[in-house]
Amino acid sequence: MPEQSGKVQTVLGLIEPGQLGRTMTHEHLTMTFECSHVPPAPGDEGLAAAPIEMKHLHWLQQNPYSHSENLLLNQEIEAVKEELLCYRKAGGGSIVENTTTGITRNLPVLRKLAKETGVHIIAGAGYYVDVTHSDETRKMTVEKLTDIIVSEVLHGADGTDIRCGVIGEIGTSWPITESEKKVLRATAHAQTQLGCPVIIHPGRNKAAPGEAIRILQEAGGNISKTVMSHLDRTLFDQQELLEFAKMGSYLEYDLFGTEMLNYPFNLDVDMPSDSQRVQALAFLIREGYEDRILIAHDIHTKHRLTKYGGHGFSHILKNIVPKMLSRGKPTD
Ligand SMILES: CCC(=O)NCCS(=O)(=O)O
């Protein structure tokens, strides 16, 4: 792809890497997450159906996936626009928007947001997890899936001329399903043709990141240009984290701002606090992985927007960066 080589492809066109500024590599600006609805606990049905209000905020923070309306981030375009203007004021430059096929990607909205806020937005190509794959997707060969992903980057996606700039987030469950394995192989083949970055959503099991990387590797993917997302809810043991880091992908801690007691998708997981995320990053830096770390908020529900009392897209720049600086360099 000679035209794009060495450039960043945003929804408004190509820019130089030097124009990116501070970049959140894993966010969603418009999407739906009904595929991950969790039925409310007995007795909570009323809360789950009530309008989002301050008095319910704590319940919502603890049960974000049990409130159907909370899963419709696509209804909040104006609020997201305000947030992006604040993000720019806070020093933000770019956002990688990870919404792929299956969770209602909306490229015209991304283009409008980029035009109206001045934030560079890079859209994601490819497919989310198996439960969102259509029958048509399941029937496709790896070659057909590859052609679609390549076309989303070279020509535009979803019937528009708006081009994606990365592949991902590519969704995988645990265990990884046959349909997801096909998409992973197609992702690797498309990356070989395009040379662009890949972003993977691993299943909720400590073996999931390594298994996804192995499948990409066997299909010829470039692991040094691959991002493993959501490590903060997936890999906890320091030795296992180092074993994974040696495989060579970028290591992404992208759930900053998410603090919940019971992680409903895997009750064995203790979701870390932001302080624990910062400690995990300090550990990786001490071990020599400073240049392989990426961070973001992965906002994908309404309640995390400042409109609803959430932390918003500027939380890392306003709160986490000062926290990191207050801890100094890990060797200090
Ligand atoms: C679409 C957003 C997404 O998949 N976020 C990850 C949520 S979790 O698997 O880490 O709970």
TrEMBL record:
Binding sites annotated in the UniProt record for a divalent metal cation 1: H26, H28, E169, D298
Taxonomic superkingdom: Eukaryota
Pfam families attached to this UniProt entry: PTE
Coiled-coil regions listed: none
Reactions listed under catalytic activity: N-acetyl-L-leucine + H2O = L-leucine + acetate; N-acetyl-L-valine + H2O = L-valine + acetate; N-propanoyltaurine + H2O = propanoate + taurine; N-acetyl-L-isoleucine + H2O = L-isoleucine + acetate
GO molecular function annotations of the record: hydrolase activity; zinc ion binding
Required cofactor(s): a divalent metal cation
Binding-site residues for a divalent metal cation 2, renumbered to this chain: E169, H201, H230
Keyword tags: Hydrolase, Metal-binding
Co-factor binding details: Binds 2 divalent metal cations per subunit.
Family annotation (Gene3D superfamilies): Metal-dependent hydrolases
Family indicated by similarity: Belongs to the metallo-dependent hydrolases superfamily. Phosphotriesterase family.
Name of the protein: N-acetyltaurine hydrolase
